[in-house]
């Protein structure tokens, strides 16, 4: 049996690991990019876990649902950019700040939204999704708009932050909330 390990960080910024079991593939679900992501279950077999070097990370800002400009909703998208299938263990992908070789974890609350995380097999070009949200005040001290990364195994994946059509990128100041990784984008965004 193959064991998976996903490295995250505790609120003090130190690395920790969350273990899961190996998984078996279930019927495929389509993500919004038209590529297939497969939900996996215990007993997966030979598919290796995705390594940081195989993944591309994007944070896509979602249009505000009301005039509450202090509440930000975004979608974290992890895409398999390799030529082979790999799997993501169930759980969360933690965000960091600082830039290449010098990331520190952004303190966050992890919630099982829209439900429990799933082990997901990503075919080449396939993506997995997680909702994120945070609150900010204009000109917040220490607010961040660049130099983001995603904690993965014992490494980091540089993260591209996509703002709205007008280019606006609300800074992450505090109160970051992370949802679980899911095989489709449907329902992952917080309301």
From TrEMBL:
The UniProt entry, under InterPro entries, shows: DUF4232
User: Which intervals hold domain DUF4232?
Assistant: 50-135
- Pfam entry (one): DUF4232
Per the record, the domain of life is Bacteria
Which residue ranges does the record annotate as region Disordered? 12-32
- Where does the record place Low complexity bias? 13-29
Output this protein's name: DUF4232 domain-containing protein
Q: Which organism is it from?
A: Actinoallomurus acaciae
Q: What is the lineage of its organism?
A: Bacteria, Bacillati, Actinomycetota, Actinomycetes, Streptosporangiales
């Amino acid at each position: 049996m193959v064991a998976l390990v996903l490295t995250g960080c505790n609120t003090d910024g130190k690395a920790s690991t969350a273990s899961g079991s190996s998984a078996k593939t279930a019927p495929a679900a389509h993500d919004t990019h038209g590529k297939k992501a497969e939900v996996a279950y215990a007993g997966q077999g030979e598919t290796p876990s995705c390594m940081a070097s195989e993944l591309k990370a994007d944070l896509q800002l979602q249009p505000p649902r009301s005039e509450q400009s202090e509440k930000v909703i975004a979608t974290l998208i992890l895409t398999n950019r390799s030529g082979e299938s790999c799997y993501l263990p169930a759980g969360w992908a933690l965000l960091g700040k600082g830039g290449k070789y010098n990331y520190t974890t952004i303190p966050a609350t992890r919630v099982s939204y829209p439900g429990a995380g799933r082990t997901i097999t990503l075919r080449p070009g396939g993506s997995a999704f997680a909702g994120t949200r945070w609150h900010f005040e204009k000109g917040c001290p220490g607010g961040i708009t660049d130099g983001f990364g995603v904690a993965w195994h014992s490494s980091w994946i540089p993260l591209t932050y996509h703002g709205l059509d007008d280019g606006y990128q609300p800074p992450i100041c505090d109160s970051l909330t992370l949802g679980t990784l899911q095989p489709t984008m449907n329902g992952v965004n917080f309301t």
